[in-house]
């Protein structure tokens, strides 16, 4: 086995609490499948037979019991549960399963929906004997209007790659660059042409050497892969201080002070390094041209990145991404849009780009366009649903008009309600005849509380955005 | 300004068609405005120095003509007559020349900025023009760049003022000149220059964030570019130089445009060529590499045998291994011309010589058993037998006697009449410079800071003649002065270093050191607690003073900076003075560590006090200020109790510099003591004496006053 797959599915979805209040992020329905199905399917498509899934007890229970959450996969799932309240980061989780790791690993996050060619990433990893290779994609503009979202723009990442666009040389968040972008000249000398790209999304898909996991085991301070480990390795690519034999004692001591990882470098080396070294010496191949120094300039750590130019790649970690993913996800699999067990009246109108889940009931004169209807949902007469996401077990009474909204599970929408660009939390009860034409933002409250829509956002700003 | 507005308006009225019809113009600056080729350039302007037996300016003109330039303005300053003579004799001034050359001379040009201001004043250019130096060797076809430039100007309404031409060449390439090592941040799509910086001597490269906030999401940071010093300029460039009289060089201009981009809305773009050749012979290292590239035919079609200058007798034949021979070359028995050798006409070479990678000028004689490798010999050089020359330049009319060995990076400069003679039986070490000019001539000249390469010297010739040549340096029969040996002060050392350019690869160790230090910095940064305003202010003042010292900033400007800091950190005037005093007094410790002896301390402090006395005077005006300053001094020396003896000297100096008045010192001495320690301090013998002296002086002066 060349690579072991690890799926990180313990995240709570803290950036879209409204959706994940009742349903854990891995189980959010996207195209009527739980989110976690997509990365598993991705792995299955490229031929993985086994995956280690790191998740919480709750999710595990739901996957094994709830029929709606059933994962329709042939792959062997090795589920490892971690405590939900332990605040474990992704790197902590890797450390947790260190015993299970026997080879290099492929780490995937559960919120990744992509049609990327995974082999591109793995090939980079193989070809360059890389320490780390990762997947990135051009950020997509979200086409749909997002209900109740503040128009706050996230700080972008600055990613520096070399002339070939593959070698990852630099990575920093805009927020950390208040003093400007600083690059050491010696790095520029080695890689004289650096492309700085912004507007990329990190797919959170990493190939890592086994030695990196061992390194993690020795360095308990690193808790997140994306936040700490990856930037650390990227930075370390150019550090020579630890490999050069003539490091003075002072520097040595400094390094030892730093939680005793003085021999990090050595550990990060692969087992066959001696052989590989020999191969490289005997070969006339070189990774760069221009100067006469050896391949990779003698560096031992190498990070590579595959940047997708086209195709889809979404990380469902925000409401906007969730809506967009729902719009596009159905294209990823070729299953009938309408589940065979759904009871659909002949006299209703269902657009080709809509998905109807299992055991749905859709009554006469209902019209459903560009929407997803979850399992066991009841849609009564003369209901119009456009551009919306309706989760499981929702009941929509007669004559409702729902547009551009997200309705979470087990909600009841009263007769004749008019809902536009709203987010309705789970198990809500919307008053009949309510007209919510302006954009309201609906708070998620404990189950079965009857509340009118609560406005938390100034109407003007939302209206402006819709227009 | 009104006249300019009118001019521009008129320019806009002219139709595009007319624009296209106008001939392409070029501005050629035939002066380097620096002294890199000193002392060679004392006798010959740099543009006329031979490279591959052809004057450098001819390459530049050929380049311009071949790219379709129809009108060239040659600006000369130093030795303009020589350049004029040369050009008038050359093919450029024949009536058939497709490129009309106008020669404009003035002794007043001190920089590129002056030249361009003159271009503007004389209203010479009407359209986009090419700006080059007289020492650029290139075969780049800039028509593509020109087209892109024109297109941008048409689309963006004259926003783009300049397109710089770069050649792609990786770091470490030998034709890269350390001086011109630049880092460029550009927008990948629009090819716009966002940041331009010379990297010489820098370890870290910093890019301000605002350059990345122009809407584009892809940038390139390029360190693999060689500046060809060819720029395509819009007519506004000359105007911008006039408007900004402080622009001296193109570097000033580019940086100025980039910094003020948002205000003025001017942009600079770049054009990168992959296969053309373009380089500026800006120092001897570049001379060496460009010359060898020339012989190796990288600058095709500008090759030695092409005789593009169309001069009689300049032709030569090209045979394999890039060996070129001029007319009437005689070669002795057993002599080998290995590869990349160019030999000018009427040169004779003795027996059993071994010549490789060398250029030999016209009318040279070379004896038997001579070894030449990477040697550049100009015309009328006489080399005796058994001489060995490696990587050296031997200028016009030099005589090298028997059994002389020239090691790497020697070069001789000679007067055409009285030639330098070297040897016999001598070995010159690396980096030697021998000239008929005495180095002191130049030192006398050094007073003028803006001195160009090539200032008129001429006066002290008689004096020089009287000085004897040193046989130990130039050999028993030698004539000439060694240059480098006499260069002791730092400035000259710098100059000597620049002669051959700097070494390209800095030692890797320093690299890793910086790495380690960076690591530690990282850590210290993360743990350091937040510093309060006063401390921050103190650090800033220290930084300001440091910079002031390094960059030789006028004290008035330092005061300005400190004042603005004062407002930024909300510091009272009293505190400013105390902190200033403290920073200055601690400065030697800051710079040289705390283990200084008292003697060293005062030695380095007193000159500083002198330099910064205007800064002090600005803050110390009222009587209370004097006392505050004194108490700050006292406080510091109470802390540094090992150096208390230095206090007297400091006070003395401050008194002499009229920073402190004697009344204040006396008052401080008599009243300031508040605790045991300061009382102890006042018992210092030196201090007592100083006070005594002050008192007496006061008495005397008061007596005189009466």
Automatic annotation (TrEMBL), chain A:
Pfam families: LbH_EIF2B, NTP_transferase. Keywords: Acetylation, Cytoplasm, Initiation factor, Phosphoprotein, Protein biosynthesis. GO terms for molecular function: guanyl-nucleotide exchange factor activity; translation initiation factor activity. The keyword Amino-acid biosynthesis does not apply. Transmembrane segments: none annotated. It comes from the Eukaryota. Acts as a component of the translation initiation factor 2B (eIF2B) complex, which catalyzes the exchange of GDP for GTP on the eukaryotic initiation factor 2 (eIF2) complex gamma subunit. Its guanine nucleotide exchange factor activity is repressed when bound to eIF2 complex phosphorylated on the alpha subunit, thereby limiting the amount of methionyl-initiator methionine tRNA available to the ribosome and consequently global translation is repressed. This is Translation initiation factor eIF2B subunit gamma. It comes from Oncorhynchus kisutch. The gene is EIF2B3.
Automatic annotation (TrEMBL), chain B:
Keywords: Cytoplasm, Initiation factor, Protein biosynthesis. CDD domains: eIF-2B_epsilon_N (cd04197), W2_eIF2B_epsilon (cd11558). Residues 1-10 have a biased composition (Basic residues). Residues 527-704 form the W2 domain. GO terms for cellular component: cytosol; eukaryotic translation initiation factor 2B complex. Residues 456-465 have a biased composition (Basic and acidic residues). Residues 1-23, 438-473, 506-529 are annotated as: Disordered. Its main location: cytoplasm. It is found in: Cytoplasm, Cytosol. Pfam families: LbH_EIF2B, W2. Residues 441-455, 508-519 have a biased composition (Acidic residues). One of its GO terms (molecular function) is translation initiation factor binding. The keyword Protein biosynthesis applies. Component of the translation initiation factor 2B (eIF2B) complex which is a heterodecamer of two sets of five different subunits: alpha, beta, gamma, delta and epsilon. Subunits alpha, beta and delta comprise a regulatory subcomplex and subunits epsilon and gamma comprise a catalytic subcomplex. Within the complex, the hexameric regulatory complex resides at the center, with the two heterodimeric catalytic subcomplexes bound on opposite sides. Belongs to the eIF-2B gamma/epsilon subunits family. This is Translation initiation factor eIF2B subunit epsilon. The gene is EIF2B5.
């Amino acid at each position: 086995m060349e690579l072991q797959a690890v799926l990180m599915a313990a995240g709570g979805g803290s950036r879209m609490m409204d959706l994940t209040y009742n349903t854990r992020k891995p189980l959010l329905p996207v195209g009527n499948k739980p989110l976690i199905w997509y990365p598993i399917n991705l792995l299955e498509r490229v031929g993985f037979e086994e995956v280690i899934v790191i998740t919480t007890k709750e999710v595990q229970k739901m996957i094994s019991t709830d029929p709606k959450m059933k994962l329709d996969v042939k792959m062997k799932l090795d589920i490892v549960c971690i405590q939900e309240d332990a605040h474990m980061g992704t790197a902590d989780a890797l450390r947790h399963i260190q015993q299970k790791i026997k080879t290099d690993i492929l780490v995937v996050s559960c919120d990744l929906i992509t049609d990327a060619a995974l082999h591109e990433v793995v090939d980079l990893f193989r070809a360059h004997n890389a320490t780390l290779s990762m997947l990135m994609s051009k950020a997509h503009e979200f086409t749909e209007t997002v209900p109740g979202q503040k128009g706050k723009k996230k700080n972008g990442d600055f990613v520096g790659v070399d002339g070939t666009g593959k070698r990852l040389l630099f990575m920093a968040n805009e927020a950390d660059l208040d003093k400007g972008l600083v690059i050491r000249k010696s790095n520029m000398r080695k890689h004289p042409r650096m492309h700085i790209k912004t507007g990329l999304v990190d797919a959170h898909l990493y190939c890592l050497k086994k030695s990196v996991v061992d390194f993690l085991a020795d360095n308990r301070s690193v808790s997140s892969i994306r936040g700490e480990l990856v930037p650390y390795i990227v930075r370390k690519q150019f550090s020579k201080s630890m490999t050069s034999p003539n490091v003075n004692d002072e520097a040595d001591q400094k390094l030892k002070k730093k939680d005793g990882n003085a021999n990090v470098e050595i550990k990060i080396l692969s087992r066959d390094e001696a052989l590989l070294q020999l191969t490289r010496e005997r070969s006339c191949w070189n990774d760069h041209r221009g100067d006469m120094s050896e391949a990779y300039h003698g560096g031992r750590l190498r990070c590579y990145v595959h940047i997708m130019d086209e195709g889809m790649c979404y990380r469902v970690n925000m409401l906007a991404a969730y809506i967009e993913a729902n719009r596009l996800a159905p294209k990823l699999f070729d299953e009938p849009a309408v589940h065979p067990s759904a009871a659909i009246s002949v006299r209703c109108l269902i657009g080709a780009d809509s998905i109807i889940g299992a055991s749905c009931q859709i009554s006469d004169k209902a019209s459903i366009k560009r929407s997803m209807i979850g399992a066991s949902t009841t849609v009564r007469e003369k209901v119009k649903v456009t551009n919306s996401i309706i989760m499981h077990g929702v009941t929509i009474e007669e004559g409702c008009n729902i547009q551009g909204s997200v309705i979470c599970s087990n909600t009841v929408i009263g007769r004749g309600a008019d809902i536009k660009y709203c987010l309705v939390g789970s198990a809500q009860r919307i008053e009949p005849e309510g007209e919510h034409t302006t954009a309201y933002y609906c708070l998620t409250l404990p189950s079965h509380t009857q509340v009118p829509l609560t406005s938390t956002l100034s109407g003007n700003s939302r209206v402006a955005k819709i227009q | 300004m009104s006249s300019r507005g009118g001019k521009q308006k008129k320019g806009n009225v002219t139709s595009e068609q007319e624009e296209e019809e106008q001939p392409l113009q070029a501005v050629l600056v035939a002066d380097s405005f620096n002294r890199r080729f000193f002392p060679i350039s004392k006798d010959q302007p740099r543009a006329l120095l031979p490279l591959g037996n052809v004057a450098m300016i001819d390459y530049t003109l050929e380049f311009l003509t071949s790219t379709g330039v129809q009108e060239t303005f040659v600006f000369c300053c130093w030795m303009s007559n020589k350049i004029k003579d040369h050009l008038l004799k050359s093919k450029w001034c024949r009536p058939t020349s497709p490129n009309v050359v106008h020669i404009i001379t003035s002794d007043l040009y001190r920089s590129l900025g002056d030249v361009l201001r003159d271009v503007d004043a004389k209203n010479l250019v009407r359209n986009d023009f090419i700006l080059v130096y007289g020492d650029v060797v290139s075969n780049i076809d800039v028509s593509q760049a020109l087209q892109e430039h024109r297109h941008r100007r048409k689309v963006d309404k004259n926003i783009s003022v300049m397109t710089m031409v770069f050649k792609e060449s990786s770091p470490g390439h030998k034709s890269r000149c350390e001086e011109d090592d630049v880092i460029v941040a550009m927008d990948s799509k629009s090819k716009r220059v966002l940041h331009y910086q010379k990297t010489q001597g820098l370890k870290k490269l910093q890019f301000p964030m605002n350059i990345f906030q122009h809407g584009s999401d892809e940038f390139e940071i390029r360190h693999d570019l060689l500046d060809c010093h060819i720029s395509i300029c819009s007519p506004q460039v000359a105007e911008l130089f006039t408007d900004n009289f402080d622009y001296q060089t193109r570097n000033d201009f580019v940086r100025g445009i980039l910094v003020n981009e948002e205000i003025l809305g001017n942009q600079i773009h770049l054009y990168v060529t992959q296969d053309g050749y373009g380089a500026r012979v800006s120092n001897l290292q570049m001379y060496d590499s460009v010359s060898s590239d020339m012989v190796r035919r990288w600058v095709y079609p500008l090759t030695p045998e092409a005789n593009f200058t169309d001069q009689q007798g300049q032709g030569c034949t090209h045979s394999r291994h890039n060996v070129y021979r001029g007319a009437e070359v005689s070669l002795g028995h057993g002599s080998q011309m290995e590869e990349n050798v160019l030999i000018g006409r009427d040169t004779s070479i003795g027996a059993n010589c071994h010549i490789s990678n060398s250029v030999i000028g016209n009318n040279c004689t070379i004896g038997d058993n001579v070894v030449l490798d990477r040697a550049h010999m100009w015309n009328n050089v006489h080399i005796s037998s058994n001489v060995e020359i490696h990587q050296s330049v031997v200028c016009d009319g030099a005589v090298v006697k028997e059994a002389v060995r020239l090691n790497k990076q020697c070069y001789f400069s000679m007067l055409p009449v009285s030639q330098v003679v070297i040897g016999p039986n001598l070995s010159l070490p690396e980096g030697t410079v021998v000239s008929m000019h005495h180095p002191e001539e130049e030192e006398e000249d050094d007073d003028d800071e803006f001195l160009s390469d090539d200032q008129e010297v001429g006066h002290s010739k008689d004096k020089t003649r009287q000085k004897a040549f040193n046989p130990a340096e130039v050999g028993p029969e030698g004539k000439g002065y060694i240059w480098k040996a006499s260069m002791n002060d730092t400035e000259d050392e710098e100059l000597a270093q620049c002669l051959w350019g700097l070494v390209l690869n800095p030692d890797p160790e320093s690299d890793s050191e910086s790495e380690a230090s960076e690591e530690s910095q990282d850590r210290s940064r993360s743990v350091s607690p937040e510093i309060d305003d006063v401390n921050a202010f103190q650090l800033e003042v220290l930084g300001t003073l440091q910079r002031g010292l390094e960059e030789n900033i006028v004290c008035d400007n330092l005061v300005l900076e400190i004042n603005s800091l004062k407002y930024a950190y909300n510091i009272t005037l009293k505190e400013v003075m105390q902190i200033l005093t403290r920073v200055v007094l601690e400065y030697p410790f800051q710079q040289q560590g705390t283990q200084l002896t008292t003697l060293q301390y005062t030695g380095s402090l007193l000159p500083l006090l002198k330099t910064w006395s205007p800064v002090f005077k600005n803050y110390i005006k009222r009587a209370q200020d004097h006392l505050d300053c004194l108490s700050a001094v006292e406080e510091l020396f109470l802390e540094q109790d090992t150096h208390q003896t230095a206090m007297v000297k400091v006070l003395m100096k401050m008194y002499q510099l009229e920073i402190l008045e004697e009344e204040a010192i006396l008052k401080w001495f008599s009243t300031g003591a508040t605790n045991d320690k300061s009382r102890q301090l006042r018992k210092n013998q030196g201090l007592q004496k100083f006070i005594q002296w002050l008192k007496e002086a006061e008495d005397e002066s008061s007596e005189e006053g009466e």
